Known about the structure:
The complex is a heterotrimer of chains A (308), B (444) and C (293). With 308 residues, chain A is mostly helical. In chain A, helix 1 runs antiparallel to helix 16 (274-295) and helix 4 (67-97) packs across helix 13. Chain A has 16 helices and no strands. Chain A has helices spanning 6-34, 38-42, 54-65, 67-97, 104-113, 123-131, 135-144, 146-154, 168-176, 180-190, 194-202, 207-218, 220-235, 239-244, 253-260, 274-295. By secondary structure, chain B is of the alpha/beta class. Chain B contains 19 helices and 10 strands. In chain B, strand 1 (26-32), helix 2 (36-52) and strand 2 (56-62) form a beta-alpha-beta unit. The longest helix of chain B has 22 residues, at 416-437. With 293 residues, chain C is mainly alpha-helical. Chain C is built from 13 helices and 2 strands. In chain C, strand 1 and strand 2 form a beta hairpin. Chains in contact: A-B, A-C, B-C. Chains A and C meet through helix 1, helix 4, helix 5, helix 6 and helix 9 of A and helix 1, helix 3, helix 4, helix 5 and helix 6 of C.
Amino acid sequence: MIERTPWLNLVTHLILFTGLFILVVPIYLVIVAASQTLPDVMAIPAKLLPGDQLIVNIRAAWEEAQFGTKFTNTLILATGVVVGKIVIAALTAFGIVFFNHRLRMPIFWMVFITLMLPLEVRIVPTYAVAANALSPFQTILDIVGISWIINAVSGIEVALEWNLLNSYTGLIMPLVATATGTFLYRQFFLTIPDELVEAAKMDGAGPLRFLWDILIPLSRTNMAALATIMFVVGWNQYLWPLLIITDPNYGVAAVELSRLVPNMNTTGGDIPNWHWAMAGTLIVMLPPVAVVIFMQRWFVRGLINTDK
Amino acid sequence: MTSASTSAVAAAAALFASTAFAQDKVTFEYWYGLSGQLGDVVQQTCDRFNASQDQYEIVCIGQDGYANAVQNSIAAFRAKQHPTVVQAYDAGTADLMMSGEFYPVHQMMADFGIEINWDDYFPGIANYYASSKGQLFSMPFNSSTPMLYINKEHYAAAGLEAFPATWEQFEENLKALKAAGQECAYGYAPSTWIDLEQFSMAHGVPIATNNNGYDGLDSEYVYNTTIHVKHMENIKLWYDENLLEIRTSQGGLNARDSFAQGECSHYFGSIASHQAVTNLVDGTFDWDVTMIPVYEGTERKNTVVGGASLWVLSGKSDEEYRGAAEYLKFLATPESEEFWSTNTGYIPVTKTGFDTLVSKGFYENAPYKGRELALESLTYTEPGPLTRGIRLGGFIQARSEWSNEIQAALQGEKTMQDALDTAVERSNAILSKFARTYRGKELP
Amino acid sequence: MRRAYFKNNWIAALVVAPQLLIIFVFFYWPSSQALYWAFTLEQPWGGGNEWVGFENFVFLLSDDRYWQSVRVSVIYALATTALAMGMALILALFADRQLRGYKSFRIGLIWPYAVAAPAIGLAFRFIFNPSAGVASYLNYAFPDIWNPVMNGSHAMSMVIIAGAWKQVSYSFIFFLAGLQSIPRSLTEAAAMDGARPMRRMMDIQLPLLTPTFFFLLVINITDSFTDSFGIVDTMTSGGPARATNLMVYKIYEDGFRGLDYSGAAAQSIILMILVIALTFVQFRYVERRVHYT
């Protein structure tokens, strides 16, 4: 749009600069702390200019936390969460927006409620499920009496077991289960005009064809946003991996990072290697930041949907 | 052991080694709470154990904090995926005891024919983890007790020499430091462990009835009626008069780091911090530690242990228990104790371990000089009924009640007496809930 | 609302099945076990329990400390949501004008999202540190004007700012994505009719943004109730004197650090009911104003 709005442009820039400033200052301080020696980090008043120890600290943090394998694991975890979530969320939202059945809202609410009880709160029983993901079914079979019948008829003892501890599946599955993605897709699918559905039906396209040919291409912007968000969520997972991973070969980055951060609650107290902790924060931040910077190009108008 | 028999054992071990290689080693897990540098040292004890023999392999997994170690062990225990050994902190002792889901180490060592001289453990440490009959349930491991850390250069600048033995003297010193222009004379952070628990031990006053809970589940807190009230009122007074400054990690530098930066002249902290303070100060100023003061007219008693002990959980195989027993035995050797005490600030838990270090002159020079005072504090008197330790259920919550009320009083929302009354009332509700949860059970 | 539907309901059943299966195993099954504890006194190590009915709830609802925790949680949720969404919306609207430097702004505004909550907590602790951080310069000029360690409202505002900061980039991403998907032809047509940029924002972009707005409102409010643990834990530990003792933090502290599983389960149920009620209100009253097509 070619119009001259010099004042508004100035205001725009001012607002954006202020926003940028507010958002970037905390991270700038992380960088400052990561580039100083320990005494400088602890100095009073705070030193607000970066030091020259950045590389030294990053190297120390890298070695201390052995980030090599952790990064691979975290990458697998985050990618798994992204893919699983996008697929499952799109399917569910499709099922509750484009079909006329009585269970639409109940199913939506059932999915949605999962947002309301965070993992911190239900960690103990969730662990039990991760130790044997089939235990709910076993219990149901036992209660209903089916195990007994099978046992009586065939002589086979029904003992379902699927241990997810120390596995990528165990890391990924519970994170895929939550509702954010489904909700996002629902919001987007609701904006799809009825005419599109009618047209598709007129052309004789079935629901799956409609999903694949029309909805998926249309929802690419949303998908990019969701993928970005879920990658970051997956990458920053802490409490769940800490609990179910006891084999260091499956360790993830955020857990390793928190080991660098001094724990003030331990009686003995630790040497507060803040400079390493902050350098570690920077390293661990890099992959998600790279993903965010890469993915955000897809939000740009014109790259996709040029015809809109 | 003579050199001849040593080589015989070595030969036998070599023979065994070849057969043991054929079969798999017995592997068992140990979850610990210590993190950072202290966690690294725990890991090293595991590596040393694995290198010392070839029958067992201990897999040590850091759980990033005491609370996590206990909480994750419980989650795992309920799913039958728990470790054989877990490091549990002092405050979780009563909950673990009531669960009954552990293999008392005293029993385990006897079952596997491993000789441990239980009398060798310092009573101030052993009693904390022992049954009513005095038998150890868990293995004392990282043990500490609080100390007063003093910046000697600030003392010199204020013309002070003697370290305070009483709180009255301590107050005089604070005033002197302040008069000499010292900005922060006392870096303070409310701590139940120091201000309430160890303070009450050193003064020989009760924290709760039933000898601090040792004699039954129907205990009640009474610390709002003891000299503890006077002490907390003094803290408030000193705060109002700017004789002390609140230093918590939420506000940036915690009390220890404020001390180590040379900002504050005093701070009360665990002896385990001795190593960290040494590293942080790094020779930039002269400092020392002394026992925590008592009020005039009080007969000083022993303090008790803080830190954590190692529990062996139930539901494991004999093989794993044997491995765990070997590991605990390994930790109890003077060599292991020396390794642990040299690399951390924690103190030895056995008299032999301590004597070995003393005879080597360990405590005579910096940076270890002063740590022997922690043992003096722990062994100042024989532990009596009120100075054995604390055995109260839901103690973690009770600690938080105390801290929150103290914060409210320091903010001036209420008087110290009101605050302590409320904390006691609310903590008693926690105790009675705990007693009901375990109705029909008794402390072992 | 929608009038055109597909008829093959068996396909609908097929596509919703995976998610339902996963949430059943990983959410509903374990949660129902945890919720059962709310009506018992559960021994943490699994030694058994005693049925006590609503006793845990009665205890909580008569406890003024619990109500105080509810109160600060509501304040926190409303304040962080308003701050984060307001800032994100303004930034997105102006960023969408795509002036020079737009790309750099966009990157700069989005990437803070990638920072993990504990790191944010630490950075903010440093900023707001009364004696050593950036805020110490403020205290230097006006003694005692800022002390989150001892002053409850200061601590609360600090936690709110950090919590809002965490959410700004998130909301910004979605607002921007929403704005980008508004057909360009619409705004161009309005421009040709002589509508100035501000007018176009108000008349075209904002109304078309309502589905995104509604999505973010629900997510932000829910999130600020359920996902505040990391920030409180690193910044204040719920203090001073419980001033920042948000519900999720209290549940975790009481239940899993303090080993009171039953009390924590009862608190979880109340938290769930509260969030569901709030969400319901939003769906009932706010969604009606949302223009989907």
